[in-house]
Amino acid sequence: MSATDTSARLVSGLRPTGHLQLGHYQAVIRRWTELQYHHDAYFLVADWNALAVSGHAPHEIEQYSWAMVIDCLACGVNPKLSTLFIQSWVPELTDIHMILASVTPKAWLERLPSYREIVADLGEQQGASLAMLSAPLMQAADILALRGEVVPAGPEQRAHIEFTREVARRFNHRYGRDAGFEEQAERAIARLGKKSGRRYREWLNAYQKEGDLEAFERARGLLAEQDKLNRHQQERLLGYLEGGGRRILGEPEHWQSETPPLLGMELNASGGSRDGAIFLRSNRREIEACVREMPTDPARVRRSDPGDPERCPLWSLHESFTPESDRQWAANGCRDASIGCLDCKGCLIEHIDATLAPIRDRAEELEGNHGKVRTLMTEGAERARDTVRDTLDELRRVIGLTYR
Fold first, then answer.
1. pTM of the model
2. What is residue 267's DSSP assignment?
């Protein structure tokens, strides 16, 4: 599926754990405003996820959620082109999360890098909560409930998206098999013989219960070497291993952003001090104070020392916000030392402020019209609920909890 496939449903979200910064705009929000013209796009403010992992009080998360909605609208996310909504306003998502939790091994969650990082940050004084452990499954539930086909995200999200695919595969394996699928698979295992059949079962259990990828590869290799099975039996056992069967939940693709990160721009939004960061609503004075403190090319000890823009932490900001002509001026001036770092920073300040000024103005206007914003979010939540209800109805039917 290519990035130009306009039929692909796209799902992306952000946790409202603080005020949005310049890095969020470059890596996420600006991309949302482009993708909404080409895809069936769902963008969510993941407040349940923020409650699970941030440690903020609920009233703080509500404030950050509302600020994020306004920032997204001010940046150009258009509710007429895409579906922007707040996660907790779609209660059916928690139902689907519960259904998927019933088939997801705890070990799968514990092996995710994000969970291990949370535990390491907490240290020994405070244990990780159940919500922290289950936060990646909440994220997976959002994507699968909305029938997301593609997820635009950075490389740090690769493990989470692969985890989402594994959850879908496992659910399909348990509930999507045709009548007699398991019995036929068992007969095919018997044809492997005692030794090979025992090894296949051991590796099957290790993969499906513990997420052991090495066991998965060993079982696949075992099947590939078999001459006691015909092609259909091999495919059945491979499907049995992978979670094959009728496709109920799709497996989303990861679209990795080609936008390089802004050096020094932290993407973990912090709602505390506004010092040392550029936020989407930072004014000219705040932008200037932050940029003036940023380090530059360490080779330029004196103004007369030539520098290398590619080694300067400011350069990724220039590449994102400075027009080509001024960027070339800054690059040439750095290399031949005809300008100083303060001159370069002054140019950058001008262009960052020019980018954020209209966003600040639109955000101020939206802050004065909460009724309009609430209406837009209610409409977005209802559109999302229509999609999620269809998914929930199907999941209830296949697991047998319809009560009809």
1. 0.79
2. -
